[in-house]
Write a structure and sequence with these properties.
The protein is an alpha/beta fold and about 950 residues long. Helix content is about 40%, strand content about 15%. The protein contains 30 helices and 32 strands. α6 runs antiparallel to α13 and α21 runs parallel beside α24.
Length: about 950
């Protein structure tokens, strides 16, 4: 038997079938070292797209959330580069703050000198940045890794101080006594973004305050006199605040009842009387009612101390629980503070017995020196002793906790530095910072769209921003306050710049080591040098100033500097939030044009990732087992607008999808063997109809893919690329062209037309996958024929795809019809294979019974219809002639009948043809193959 293998154009490529990503990806990184800078060079002069990096915290190894975030950013940077933008990416790190200081204290002990804490903190942050950077680079993230921004770099610390100076200049920074979120373990105020809510077991108590102004109370209720002793009742879940009580709040529009319970009268909200009496185990009768407004300024006696608690009106009082009366401790509640200040209480009047460590001052009667949480039972007992306790029970409720220590927080009034939300910004049109920020939100594009309302609500309802912290490791607030007046030095702006210049040379220690006289000279004795540091959200929130206009200059000359800020959905109250406020204060607008938020990772059952549950996925492990490209493909395939499920099983499914894409790419490469684009590319008008359609379909798909990238819908990119590889290519086009590719003459139009299409498809595909499968795209790029740059990322979207003319007879609609017919034939072929009637489709002869319109269409293919259906024979017959043996299909106007061919099998093309053996010199092959070997070669027109 003659071996005809040498006469075939068999596929061949060195592109490996087995990806081996864990080993191959690090090699790609080495080979393309310096690629980012070369991209910058070729991108010069292009329009800019600026994605500003939100800095991760320099503490600990990266987790799956870090990987997700950086990969999404990288997909955007890469796709924008391919779209013809100059899209730099400067990664950054947040380096100051408590977590690092806490780590230093844990490692080296507490009570270290402040300068030593700063020295060790800087060293620790430097180590962490190096570790995280290596992991990010391993994920294939393109960026300026040789010059990232660090908030602890001297230039950035100085720039942040200058940003503070700008805000002082705008008149929005002030010192005030206000309740702030306070963590005893941190020993500092916390930002809103550092607060999380967890369930907490608390003591809920109902406490009676005896009336002092009995006559005023009787008059308010329309009584001549009170018939017996009276008391107003409050309900609270924070017994520790009772010693700090200074007022009582009622709602001016609620009705209140005076209830006779036998021994005394109780003042309660009328709507809550029944619930309260049941709770107390009492019976009673309402003897009079009055509006809350009528009770204003009536005095009651504190149950434990010799002082009065007046009634103040407050519209935040509610009727959903308690008694309709709120006890007010202005040092420990925002609403309490505002109400008491509105009634004329001065800062000096506010009683604040809890110290920064959570312990009562030593001279507080009954409870001095006790930690507040431990004092709760003692307070309850004392209230019971004096006859003021009506009810005590334990409840479980949501309560604010420190996000680092997971311990309960309190509101605590302390002297802090604030950014005022409702202060008119200087140099503007009288608008406040809040108004500016709300206007900026309206001008910002949000992805997903619901982020707009979320951020709007947070800005609309937020209090003034407390920007001061009582820590060692942070950027200082370089203020000098007059010892007598408490006012800022009149040359504050000038002094801030002088401090910034020193910090630029020596870091934050330049401020802390400085003596006031170094700047103030003889005036130093009149001023206090402030030791507070800035909130870390001010560090990252001013990167648009000290990075984009400082250490790493970039951004648009007009309007918002950045096109996009991108972080997790928690950053509406974090980085997005602080950046918005500082941008609006300094520039009058947000620093970004758009905000993109992604959800958080959960396991396949929707559970939060947790080491205790054992459901965490370490990106380092994925890199070492499956490869970074598998992780990147998972990110692209998942809708990031909600929670993103990931597990070993889900990643394995991504690996399966990856193999399908890789195998398609390998098929393209292997069939481009011997193809030189300079010589062998055919112009579109010389290509076969099917090949022109394949290129046109690729062109249409590229437009859809680019749009998906432009709108950040990466899951659509994944679906479109995957489906194209599996369905239109693998399930249709590539299947059909194998015969032509392998059996026609090597340099025939039929083969070169096909290779031209494969070449165009490969050139497009490698670019489509480059933002997602960054390593595989670079690997594929090396094996594509023709001269090319060292990296796919030094190019833009492929422009060699031609459009199928509208007047083309075998146009888009025609091939859509053919795909439907082929699908119907394939279904019956599978049935016959299952029944073992045939072993493969080339053993089949198919007759299509078709209505006239469909027959007219399919007849255009002539004998090439069999190549499209991949059968040895294909015949068209009128629909009316369909025999009882014919099979109905889901396609209107089509029935079909398939029989096993009894013709001989060609040893070369494997088709079963009647003319096999008709040529004496080649008795084992068909006439077509003889012509392709020795003759002029077969001519194809369509497929």
């Amino acid at each position: 038997m003659t071996d005809y293998k040498a006469t075939l154009n068999l596929p061949a490529t060195d592109f490996p079938m087995k990806a081996g990503l864990p080993n191959r990806e690090p090699e790609t990184l080495k080979r393309l070292d310096g690629l980012y800078q070369r991209i910058r060079e070729v991108s010069q002069g292009r329009p800019q797209f600026i994605l500003h990096d939100g800095p991760p915290y320099a503490n600990g190894v990266i987790h799956i959330g870090h990987a997700l975030n950086k990969i999404i950013k990288d997909m955007i940077i890469r796709s924008k580069t391919l779209s013809g933008f100059d899209a730099p990416y400067v990664p950054g790190w947040d380096c100051h703050g408590l977590p690092i200081e806490h780590k230093v204290e844990t490692t080296h002990g507490k009570h270290l000198p402040a300068d030593k804490v700063r020295e060790l903190s800087r060293a620790y942050a430097t180590e962490q940045v190096a570790l995280q950077k290596a992991d990010f680079i391993r994920l294939g993230i393109l960026g300026e890794w040789d010059n990232p921004y660090l908030t602890m770099n001297f230039a950035n610390e100085a720039g942040e101080i200058r940003a503070l100076g700008k805000m002082v200049e705008q008149g929005v920074v002030f010192k005030g006594l206000k309740p702030v979120n306070w963590c005893f373990d941190c020993g500092s105020a916390l930002a809103e973004a550092e607060v999380e809510y967890q369930d907490k077991k608390s003591d809920a108590i109902d406490v009676a305050f005896a009336v002092e102004d009995a006559d005023k109370l009787a008059k308010a209720f329309g009584l001549g006199a009170l018939p017996k002793p009276a008391a107003i009742v409050i309900w609270t879940t924070t017994p520790w605040t009772i010693p700090a009580n200074q007022a009582l709040n009622v709602h001016p529009e609620f009705n209140y009842a005076l209830v006779d319970t036998g021994e005394r009268l109780l003042l309660l909200a009328e709507d809550l009387v029944a619930d309260c009496l049941t709770r107390y185990g009492l019976e009673g009768e309402t003897i009079a009612t009055a509006s809350g407004a009528a009770l204003e300024l009536i005095n009651f006696r504190h149950p434990l101390y010799d002082r009065l608690s007046p009634i103040y009106l407050a519209d935040y009082v509610e009727l959903d629980a308690g008694t309709g009366v709120v006890h007010s401790a202005p040092a420990y509640g925002e609403d309490d503070f505002r109400t008491c200040k509105a009634y004329g209480m001065t800062n000096d009047d506010i009683f604040s017995p809890v110290q920064s460590n959570g312990v009562y001052v030593s001279d507080l009667p009954f409870f001095g020196g006790q930690f507040i949480w431990k004092a709760n039972p003692a307070i309850v007992t004392k209230l019971d002793e004096v006859g003021a306790l009506l009810k005590h029970q334990s409840i479980q409720h949501s309560y604010m906790h420190c996000w680092r220590h997971k311990t309960p927080l309190i509101y605590r009034a302390t002297a802090q530095w604030f950014v005022g939300m409702d202060i008119p910004v200087k140099g503007g049109n009288g608008e406040t910072l809040r108004e500016r920020a709300l206007q900026a939100i309206e001008q910002t594009e949000f992805v997903p769209a619901w982020g707009k309302q979320r951020l709007h609500n947070m800005i609309a309802g937020r209090p003034d921003w407390c920007i001061s912290r009582q820590r060692n490791w942070g950027v200082p607030i370089p203020f000098f306050l007059h010892k007598e007046s408490g006012e800022l030095h009149p040359r504050t702006l000038e002094l801030i710049e002088q401090v910034a210049q020193r910090v630029e040379q020596g870091g934050v220690d330049a401020w802390f080591d400085m003596d006031a006289s170094d700047l103030l000279g003889d005036e130093a004795a009149q001023y206090d040098k402030i030791s507070d540091t800035l909130d870390v959200w001010f560090d990252s929130g001013t990167t648009h100033w000290h990075v984009m206009r400082g250490s790493n200059p970039m951004g648009h000359a007009q309007g918002p500097l950045a096109d996009l800020y991108l972080e997790g959905s928690d950053q509406h109250r974090g980085w997005f939030h602080s950046s918005l406020l500082t941008g609006c204060a300094i520039d009058g607008h947000a620093p970004y044009k758009g905000l993109l938020t992604h959800g958080f990772t959960v396991d396949e059952n929707g559970r939060k990732m947790s080491k205790s549950l054992g459901n965490t996925i370490a990106p380092q492990k994925v890199n070492d087992t499956l490869g970074a490209d598998i992780l990147r493909l998972w990110v692209s395939s998942t809708d990031y607008s909600g929670e993103m499920a990931v597990s070993d099983q889900i990643l394995q499914r991504s690996a399966d999808a990856y193999r399908r894409i890789r195998n398609t790419a390998r098929f393209l490469l292997s069939n481009l063997n011997g193809f030189d684009p300079k010589v062998d590319v055919l112009p579109a008008e010389q290509m076969l109809d099917l090949d022109r359609w394949a290129v046109d379909r690729t062109r249409l798909l590229q437009a859809e893919i680019v749009e998906a990238y432009d709108t950040y819908k990466f899951w659509n990119v994944y679906q479109k690329v995957h489906n194209f590889c599996v369905q239109e290519l693998g399930g249709f086009y590539l299947d059909i062209i194998k015969d032509r590719q392998y059996t026609t003459q090597a340099n025939s139009v039929a083969r070169r037309s096909c290779q031209t299409a494969l070449y165009h498809i490969a050139e497009a595909l490698v670019r489509w996958i480059a933002p997602v499968l960054s390593f595989t795209a670079e690997e594929l790029w090396q094996y594509l024929p023709g001269e090319r740059s060292e990296s796919v990322m030094l190019n833009t979207w492929y422009e060699g795809l031609t459009e199928l003319p509208a007047e083309q007879a075998l146009g888009r609609a025609f091939w859509e019809t053919v795909m439907g017919v082929k699908e119907a034939v394939n279904k019956e072929l599978e049935n016959m294979r299952g029944a073992k009637s045939i072993r493969g489709s080339l053993e089949a002869e198919v007759t299509l019974y078709v209505e006239p319109a469909l027959k007219e269409q399919l007849a255009q293919l002539g004998d090439e219809l069999r190549f499209v259906l991949i059968t040895s024979q294909a015949t068209l017959a009128p629909f009316s002639e369909a025999s009882v043996e014919s099979v109905a299909t889901e396609l209107p106007g089509l029935k079909l009948r398939i029989v096993k061919s009894d013709a001989a099998k060609c040893a070369r093309c494997w088709h079963l043809r009647a003319d096999v053996g008709s040529h004496a010199e080649h008795p084992e092959i068909c006439g077509r193959c003889v012509d392709n070997i020795e003759g002029a070669g077969e001519v194809r027109h369509h497929a």
